[in-house]
């Protein structure tokens, strides 16, 4: 199974979360928002040095389903350019912002920027709503199964708080968090 994270928010929280994941021997995939990486270019290196995947989550995190074609192409292409500058590669994976499901337009924008795969998720950790840690833990552990892709966020304290019990719960279920590259090949 794969733990995936939207890369945005306080870098100190991201560092704490990455440290927790690595201490547990897990690997994750981070879909970065381009503006976050412009403000914190060191995060690309930090994520990659931990053995994690780095992917594109659009430049400004706009609701992709509402964008005209030119704007959608800019959102994906501009973030890919930031990834090239900061990480040396645009990454392999794209996740649309503001929607769990892609459209033909979103897939076209991703393809034009060089992404063959748009990645969604089947488990929403609900951490973006900033509930308590127990809610996030339950949202993940009650719904995860082999092959699941879980959506979480780097920039939320509740995610950092919930992560140790999530990792322990995954281990108890004999599920190992791997990168999308490992899960999807």
From TrEMBL:
<dbReference type="InterPro" id="IPR050248">
    <property type="entry name" value="Polysacc_deacetylase_ArnD"/>
</dbReference>
<dbReference type="Pfam" id="PF01522">
    <property type="entry name" value="Polysacc_deac_1"/>
</dbReference>
<dbReference type="InterPro" id="IPR011330">
    <property type="entry name" value="Glyco_hydro/deAcase_b/a-brl"/>
</dbReference>
<feature type="domain" description="NodB homology">
    <location>
        <begin position="1"/>
        <end position="181"/>
    </location>
</feature>
<dbReference type="InterPro" id="IPR002509">
    <property type="entry name" value="NODB_dom"/>
</dbReference>
<protein>
    <recommendedName>
        <fullName>NodB homology domain-containing protein</fullName>
    </recommendedName>
</protein>
